[in-house]
Amino acid sequence: MSATKRLTDIGPPHYEKFLPPVVKKNYGQWDHHEILKQGVMVHVAKSGDKIFTVRAATPRLLNIATLRDFATLADTYCGGHLRFTSRNNVEFLLTDPANIEPLIADLTKSGYPVGGLGNAISNIVHTQGWVHCHSAATDASGVVKSIMDELYPHFVDMKLPGKLRIAFACCLNMCGAVHCSDIAVLGVHTRAPKIDHTSVPKMCEIPSVVASCPTGAVRPASVGGAQSVEIIEEQCMYCGNCFTVCPAMKINNAKTDGISIWVGGKVSNARSEPKFSKLAVPFLPNNPPRWPEVVGWVKKLVELYAENARKHERMGEWIERIGWPRFFQLSGIPFSKYHIDDFKHAGETFKRSVQIRQV
Amino acid sequence: MSATKRLTDIGPPHYEKFLPPVVKKNYGQWDHHEILKQGVMVHVAKSGDKIFTVRAATPRLLNIATLRDFATLADTYCGGHLRFTSRNNVEFLLTDPANIEPLIADLTKSGYPVGGLGNAISNIVHTQGWVHCHSAATDASGVVKSIMDELYPHFVDMKLPGKLRIAFACCLNMCGAVHCSDIAVLGVHTRAPKIDHTSVPKMCEIPSVVASCPTGAVRPASVGGAQSVEIIEEQCMYCGNCFTVCPAMKINNAKTDGISIWVGGKVSNARSEPKFSKLAVPFLPNNPPRWPEVVGWVKKLVELYAENARKHERMGEWIERIGWPRFFQLSGIPFSKYHIDDFKHAGETFKRSVQIRQV
Amino acid sequence: MSEKRATPLLDELEKGPWPSFVKELKKSADTPAVNDLLGQLERSYEEKIGHWKHGGLVGVMGYGGGVIGRYSDLQAEFPECAEFHTLRINQPAGWFYTSDALRTIADIWERHGSGLTNMHGSTGDIILLGAKTQALEPIFAELTAAGFDLGGSGSDMRTPSCCVGQARCEWACYDTMGACYDFTQTYQDELHRPAFPYKYKLKFAGCPNDCVASVARSDMAFIGTWRDDIKVDNEGVRAAAAGGVDIQKEICDMCPTRCMAWDGSTLAIDNSNCVKCMHCINVLPKAVKPGDDRGAAILIGAKAPIVGGALLSSVFVPFIKMEPPYEDLKELISRIWDLWAEHGKNRERVGEFIQRIGLGNFLEQIGLDPVPEMISAPRSNPYIFFGDEVSEGGQA
Amino acid sequence: MSEKRATPLLDELEKGPWPSFVKELKKSADTPAVNDLLGQLERSYEEKIGHWKHGGLVGVMGYGGGVIGRYSDLQAEFPECAEFHTLRINQPAGWFYTSDALRTIADIWERHGSGLTNMHGSTGDIILLGAKTQALEPIFAELTAAGFDLGGSGSDMRTPSCCVGQARCEWACYDTMGACYDFTQTYQDELHRPAFPYKYKLKFAGCPNDCVASVARSDMAFIGTWRDDIKVDNEGVRAAAAGGVDIQKEICDMCPTRCMAWDGSTLAIDNSNCVKCMHCINVLPKAVKPGDDRGAAILIGAKAPIVGGALLSSVFVPFIKMEPPYEDLKELISRIWDLWAEHGKNRERVGEFIQRIGLGNFLEQIGLDPVPEMISAPRSNPYIFFGDEVSEGGQA
Ligand code: SRM
Ligand code: SRM
Ligand code: SRM
Ligand code: SRM
Ligand code: SF4
Ligand code: SF4
Ligand code: SF4
Ligand code: SF4
Ligand code: SF4
Ligand code: SF4
Ligand code: SF4
Ligand code: SF4
After folding, report:
1. A contact test, residue of D118, D230, D347 with most A CBs within 10 A
2. Taking a contact as any Cβ pair under 8 Å apart, which residues of chain C between 366 and 395 contact chain B?
3. Would you state the pLDDT for residue A1?
4. A319 to chain C, minimum CA–CA distance in Å?
5. Which end of chain C is more exposed for a tag (fewer CB within 10 A), N or C?
6. Are the beta carbons of D222 and D214 closer than 8 angstroms?
């Protein structure tokens, strides 16, 4: 142990240390902004000062070598200043417009495409998947990469009716705001956990396991004389929460894990209130390395939106305008009982009027 | 017992026996209608035939003497034909327009005012109250009479923005569609039932009583050695359902029973979907014979609507357009925790956005 | 007969322009039962509390419903209304009467009861208010002889009711009175002999205006609608505009889907987005009319708050041609009743039952395909009970 | 080091225009831990299943959070990633860095870990992905020396995050970065030492666009807004119109309350009905701007689906001036945490807690007055728990 006092609870560094001078000077004094072209925007301060932002995609999982490359670019073009966005893009902050094109050229050359502004598809917010998490029903990075390779034109162009936010989560814990995304891609388990009865008594607190189940499917049971739990299979909807509190309730299943797709959520208050995403495609199989079924459906949904929505309309606003029946018709997704909610507030989603579009 | 066979299950008389000839002839062949003046409308058939309707208020509780008077009027002016409406008004069905005014004169003279058509207040749908029901937290007919004496001008005029439907129920069983009314007047109990432990074992099935409670406030208990039930008072919200299944759980309480007022519900699909009424005034005391507090609030709400709503807008549509905060401001009803739902789907009524009118 | 009860508080309610129920009561003040009723009611007004006790089982032979038993809890003081039961008489569809029919009812009720009625009860029945137990059979005999029968009460099918429909309304998309009568006759047994977990109400409305409030208070609502285009007579629209209707504001801007456009002379409707709400038709009854391909949407599950909270009914069959003898519908109703009778809990309305077992499961059990018209939006929660078909490379 | 793992399936993901995480991984293929990670991941791609086990308690001395323990379930085959924990490093507010700061992190992480990061985790932290248990303390020492600290994990306050706010956005109605930093520093103990029933997240968004998705994923969301009138520069509006924006269609018709009117030269706003949705401002950034009386609305209770279903947060304080040192707010937060800590169940988020005890009760307990802005509509169900003040002639 070193002789110096151990530092704790210092918190993050103060952000001011990292702000570009033009930001410090004009903090809180910005007047307006303009998107100059895809990936490049300028913010103009009341003082007349300008800051240019060049936004580039990252795969979020970044090697320190890449961080160093970004640092070098920042030194070369931006006085050493950059930031990341809430969707895991990197933004280079410039004051000299002459540096914009050379920076873009360097970024493009290194494989970090510039774009994601305005009415486009930005980076996919996502999670760990098979790279790091124990609960994952699918991989995260691989699915995201496969989808974005296909949707890439919508990142570097700006031809959509509005912003389209895609998010991905590898299990029902939904790390990230996937439940309020224009398109949410969600890993799902579809079979009840398998209980390792020899491990339960050692690894798990039985009352916590019982309490963890949203549908009350877990109950205490004595198996082979030892205290364990059992699952009433008809009551299990595979959320994996019992597994979170008890590693002996293994939920991962190579054969039956897969992916579901949800649509029409949003977060902003613009025009309509924030809303949850709703189930579109209940289940697609895991098909690594490129998950063609998932990519296919996502692409189809994006195209449908691109063709049909009005300017400024988000995915969910468009669907609500035309009605869900028409959405199912247009998308060709077969409507099934899985689409009908049957959890706590299910009744609130029933159609309680005769305001129906009669085909 | 008479010698003739006892008739059962014959069902109601066939309606055709009671239809005026012009109706029989033009059944399903009506073309359009027109309100000629308040209380009088004409329906024109494709054949050109016309039927005139004169609508008059009734107190619903009708003496057979009155039925006979109506029969006489029908004979005099309508070839013996009349009907009642789904809101307990009586409608005289005429073919000769010359009979309209004499009929109206007779009705008015007998105290059955003509009106209730179009953008007006029609009769109040209501229930039994102290006249006949054991559960009633207040009287029905008396409250209705008191309100309608005050709102009478809106029955005989047609100056409201849209239809305004008032309904009354004397307890939470809500006999009648009060839960979807522009203004709903609802009798409420506000104290837990008093248990007559000597009667429980004789009169009640304990498991049914326990099961009857929506909030699980009733549980089996042994009182003085005998099987009975007890009520966890904090969990009781005075619905009276235990009393419905067990007469020994007396809920009526002269001191603490009273009336609540709800607004903004509707049934029709016109413009907006059907909606429930929402709590406006949580509690007003029983003050027979004229319930001035209740009458005062109902009148105030009607006037507020009359002044502020747009043409064709129902009460609830108006409130939704201006927002509930403004409704509370305009009405002067103090907002309290009672207005915030705390039953099963309570969370669905929380404001889950920042779309707020900032005063 | 005891002396005439003093009713100073009730007397207040004889005043004022609205018809007075006290006057109605007093028209029979000479009838002992009504005299005591007035006395007991006055007492309630003084004490601010009701004086009725639970009913218990009273009724007519062979029927389980149709009579609500009622006893005074002040029997010693008001002996004449100690027993004060109501009979629910199944109204004629659409509440049409001839003067003779009314007189027939009045006569029977004068002979055997209080002379007080409700025209009508909230479910739709003719309510005869205040009979003694011993009078029930004689009344029933006279009523049936005159062609009337009891309605429902208890855990049975309740008396169906309907709007005036094609008898007088140009918007009726099917024959509500015909259907109401037909279903009532078909289900006489279910109406009179409670055998369900709880009550089951049917109501028939001819169009989405729903003048019988079926969406709010019937376990099964038949609401008329149409499938083809609205019929617009633009000359009529222009006449209305000339007459002072602001077509843009009052019609186009109030359409829930804003599927109409008005250029000052033509009202154009994008019928694929019309949700048949009736608003434009209501405001322009001479110029705009429902289409010709008419039928009904069927909704299920409305109820008052007890026990699990109030429900509006929800779409079950988005469109069906309403044609007698309604075989498919009756088949569907049997399947619902069978399932609910077997698995419903005591006092669980069908709307609550569906929520408990899940609409998807319910549909599967009764063999009806799910369609997106049944919901306002697909589920947002990911707690999906996947079946075995979802697996091992499959896709759902 | 074991030989280089073959990764034919993963190699497929090096192709295509989108930046490849596989390339990122391979930049450290020489690092034994990453080489084995590649091997294990390839195995997952072959078998379609993950190979990680639950974490267990690992961390740094005196902290209860900030490290997620992770073990391979194929330790024999991939020994170098047998232990593969992540550290959550509290990011600088707004995710601003200098090149030096990035290099400092890279250097520390190169010395002690896999060299893999997430920039950033979904909560906002810098994620250092893949450390052995024994490396945790040295990393922590170097990080703190460099001015960085751990973020949250477990049942504690989680790392707060914020949008770029006033640093670069003209719409920021308060200083999101300042507030985020201030609250983070105030609650270092709550961040590092789990003592709550479950996690508690704070997020700061400068305006109703909510670029940090606070409404969907924070237990407490601070969303900027304003109280006075929108600022309209009609010259700017006309310029936009001339430039091709259809003001009627794109602005007026898309306003949620339709509180705007455009006559071809002036955009008039009925500010009393503006709900501050941002739409008109978003589309016309040069011509339309938020008012001057700025602050934030505070919402409470968002969360992902586990256990009781996902929630969006709901209005708690409709408007507050956001001024350091935010004393009233911190006072309010203490009261919430105290109540929730005492009465919340294990793993019950504050949003679920509020629903369980009732929002009305919750407000009463923490001493905040109920206001109608908190709800979308008053209750429709009549199951009201009346208090004693409602009675005996009183009125509520
Ligand atoms: C950089 C960033 C904030 C940050 O601190 O990191 C940001 C920055 C801006 N946002 Fe955002 N938003 C950012 C995430 C978000 C999010 C959060 C998310 O996506 O998870 C949302 C909510 C999305 C949702 O509703 O689901 C968001 C909803 C908006 C909106 C509302 C769009 C709408 O119509 O619903 C606007 C307004 C607009 O673009 O017209 C907006 C506008 C803007 C502006 C124009 C604000 C300004 O004046 O500077 C900025 C550039 C816009 C752009 O990307 O086109 N920003 N913005 C985030 C960039 C993420 C990225 O890399 O793509
Ligand atoms: C006679 C009656 C049907 C019956 O079989 O008894 C009836 C008859 C008509 N209704 Fe109705 N409605 C009748 C109860 C209802 C009800 C049910 C209720 O009040 O409990 C409703 C639903 C109310 C609600 O939404 O809460 C109802 C909602 C309508 C509407 C929709 C109004 C709206 O804007 O929401 C119309 C259309 C209109 O008036 O513009 C309508 C229109 C009509 C028309 C014009 C239909 C026609 O062409 O004949 C009839 C005369 C209208 C009038 O009263 O102004 N009728 N109407 C009922 C008269 C009740 C009474 O005595 O006042
Ligand atoms: C007479 C009538 C009220 C009236 O004055 O019009 C009535 C009276 C009673 N209703 Fe009702 N209900 C009457 C129509 C309704 C309606 C309206 C409707 O049918 O359209 C409803 C709401 C719709 C519904 O069915 O949900 C209604 C919902 C209830 C409930 C609550 C049911 C629920 O599921 O929430 C009860 C409680 C019960 O069943 O135990 C109830 C129970 C009762 C009882 C039998 C009281 C009891 O605790 O058992 C009342 C007898 C009163 C008496 O002394 O005569 N009554 N009841 C109506 C029947 C007359 C008729 O046959 O025409
Ligand atoms: C690392 C991260 C995902 C990522 O790749 O970015 C993450 C990873 C995990 N989350 Fe998360 N969550 C992460 C952000 C979120 C978010 C998003 C947010 O904070 O904005 C959410 C949704 C919002 C919310 O809090 O509700 C989220 C909702 C959950 C939940 C469900 C909580 C709930 O109340 O529904 C769990 C389950 C649990 O707590 O047991 C969970 C649990 C987990 C655990 C610890 C798994 C577990 O069973 O204990 C994951 C560890 C993965 C690993 O191997 O490293 N994680 N988690 C994110 C944290 C990084 C960071 O600190 O920046
Ligand atoms: S979503 Fe599930 S599997 Fe993915 S990182 Fe979060 S907890 Fe792990
Ligand atoms: S997976 Fe979820 S639903 Fe199934 S038993 Fe475990 S906790 Fe319950
Ligand atoms: S509402 Fe209640 S008190 Fe009134 S008649 Fe119906 S059951 Fe009786
Ligand atoms: S009155 Fe209602 S809430 Fe109270 S104990 Fe009886 S059933 Fe339960
Ligand atoms: S429901 Fe429709 S068809 Fe029936 S009376 Fe009302 S308006 Fe006419
Ligand atoms: S019926 Fe309703 S939805 Fe259809 S066009 Fe008319 S107003 Fe619009
Ligand atoms: S939330 Fe508002 S203030 Fe913050 S970055 Fe987004 S647009 Fe700007
Ligand atoms: S901010 Fe939104 S609500 Fe306000 S005027 Fe603009 S569009 Fe309308």
Report:
1. D118
2. none
3. 45
4. 10
5. N
6. yes
Asked whether the predicted pLDDT for residue B2 surpasses 60, the reply is no
Residue whose token pair is 């140009």: C170
Q: Which residues contact D4 (CB under 8 A, 6 or more apart)?
A: D29, D35
Write out chain C residues lying below 8 Å of D380, CB-based: 310
D19 and D129 belong to one structural domain: yes
A51-80 as b/e: b if 16+ CB within 10 A: bbbbbbbbbbbbbbebbbbbbebbbebbbb
- Per-residue burial over D290-327, b if 16 or more Cβ lie within 10 Å, else e, is bbeebbbbbbbbbbbbbbbbbbbbbbbbbbbebeeebe
- C389, amino acid identity: E
Of B341, C253, D279, the closest CA to residue A273 belongs to D279
pLDDT at B4 over 80: no
Query: What SS3 state is found at C201?
Result: coil
Contact D166 A60 (CB under 8 A): no
C288 CA to middle of ligand 2, Å?
17
Confidence of residue B136 (pLDDT cuts 50, 70, 90): very high
- Provide the shortest C-alpha distance from residue C170 to chain B (in Å): 5
- H or E stretch at C288: strand C288-289
pLDDT in tens, B203-249: 999 999 999 999 999 999 999 888 999 999 999 999 999 999 999 99
Q: Could you give the count of Cα atoms lying within 13 Å of D3 in the half-sphere of its Cβ?
A: 2
Give chain D's mean pLDDT: 96
What is the pLDDT averaged over residues D218-245? 98
Nearest CA in chain D to C312: D380
Report whether pLDDT(D393) > 60: no
Q: Is the N-terminal amide bond of D325 cis, ω within 30° of 0? A: yes
Is-cis flag, bond preceding A126, omega within 30?
no
CB A326 within 8 A of CB A318: no
Distance (Å) from CA C249 to ligand 7 centroid: 42
Structure tokens at B310: 């747009």
| Burial degree of D32 (CB within 10 A; 0-12, 13-18, 19+) | middle
Say if D134 falls within a structural domain.
Answer: yes
Reported as a single tens digit per residue, the pLDDT across B253-307 is 999 999 999 999 999 999 999 999 999 999 999 999 999 999 999 999 999 999 9
Asked whether residue C130 falls in the same domain as residue C275, the answer is no
Under-50 pLDDT residues of chain A? 1
Q: Residue D255's domain is classified under what CATH number?
A: 3.30.70.20
Backbone angles phi, psi at D172, to 5 degrees: -60, 120
What ranges make up the beta strands (E) of A57-161? 61-63, 81-84, 90-94
User: Does D3 fall in a domain?
Assistant: no
Of residues C14 and C392, the one with the higher pLDDT is: C14
Say which amino acid occupies B42.
Answer: V
Report CA Rg, chain C: 25
φ/ψ bin of C288: left (φ > 0), alpha (ψ from -120 to 50), beta (otherwise): beta
Chain A contacts in chain D segment 108-147 (CB below 8 A): 109-110, 115-120, 122, 124, 129, 141, 144-145, 147
Q: Is the domain of C190 the same as that of C205?
A: yes
Q: Is the peptide bond before C371 cis (omega within 30 degrees of 0)?
A: no
pLDDT of C54: 87
Report the CATH number that the domain containing residue C37 is assigned in CATH. Answer: 3.30.70.2500
Q: Are residues D326 and D186 part of one domain?
A: yes
Q: Is B33 near chain D, with CB under 8 Å?
A: no
Q: pTM of whole model > 0.90?
A: yes
Structural domain range at position D200: 161-225+295-374
Tokens, residue C178: 């015909």
Under DSSP, is residue B267 helix (H, G, I), strand (E, B) or coil? coil
